[in-house]
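Translate sequence into structure tokens.
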Amino acid sequence: MKPVKVRMKLTCHINLSRETPESVGLIGELVEKANRETFLKGVSEAYRDEAARIEGWKLEGSRLTVELASGSRVRAPSAVLRFRKLLAEELGRKFRVGVRGVEVPRLTIRLEGLKVEGDVLRRIRGLEYVGEADVEGETLTLNLNPLGEAELRRNAVDRLLGLVLKLAEEAGRPQAVEVHPVVMQGPQRPVKFRGDPARVAVRLGWVKEFPGRGQWVYTPPYVRLLEAVEQILVEEVAEKLGFQPFLLPKLIPLEVMRRMPGYLEDIPEGMYYVCPPPRDPEAFSRFKQALRVTGTVKRELLMEALKEPDYVLAPAQCEPFWNFFSHETLRLEDLPYKFYDRAGWTYRWEGGGVEGLVRVQEFRRVELVYFGSPDQVVEIRDRVRDEIVRVADKLLEMEWRVVAALPFYMRGGEVGDISESRNVAAYDGNLPALPW
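Result follows.
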């Protein structure tokens, strides 16, 4: 994909705490300073023509309107925040005037050298913040909906640009067939069972289907088998390698999920969302009355009482671990940290992909989480791999293989050189389908 040239034009309103006609002279000086210094910080000499620049401004009452243009270096949305900071400091110091907020009613982005059409253009038009999207030759023009200061601080425009370029790039290249190189493989073993595990387990009374699709009730024989296998993994892998037990929540706030790479932005369709109820019995009065009279669950009345979704049921199990250590300062000599969680369920909405006991929507797992220096992480990962291979090969006497893979949030990338373990992003251990 050839380089794309970015051009932006932006109008912003900066709302001041009061009218301040005496500050006009100072604002003019600050505009010149921003163009001469503030917007050029971190920009090399070769790219100064790409930096943001204020092309016009006007003070009306307590509102300052500014027109900015930029290329790809110090883009206009970032320049707005830089100018806001400069303005707040100087107006506050000299006139005791504050900045109440920033609004961006108009932002036009021209992407020159980008040819999109058909389904890609339709998808771009459906993206958040995109009001209009038009193509002329190899130039895509985006007119965005109004933005607030919160969107600017979240780098919403840069995120949008990244997604637009990603859609265009994916459309311009053939879909690669995903190939996972085999790193190691065990011997073939005789197949002793060829039935359907779910059907046999139902016939034996070990499991029974639950009304929720992809969910089962597991009876004592199945649970004893599950616990035995789980205990082998805990003792022979986790605890043998020094992992300590952790208890992690399974009800995950959306704000925590937002910080997990590859989930909400890539697979929001794969999660269960939780709507907290108000602590007010009267909020459910219509719902309760309808249920008593009709004997049916009126979902539309239930939705009237519920709040908006604020949580998801844990789809990966490790989300609270990363939140626990976020913004913490750790000493290198205290590393590595190694923990495991076996305390509950994981939930994934598989839709039409549900299959017996092999692919369910509610399942148990033993989750290992660890971090350390780069060398420590590679060493721990390889030791976990080797111990899992030992368990599969020697204790469970199963066929197995290990392949070099990519985490799901790196999909679309390349596995690369696998001659050294530190070059491999992830290993997947492949086992036959288990009857549990």
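Note: The mean pLDDT is 88.
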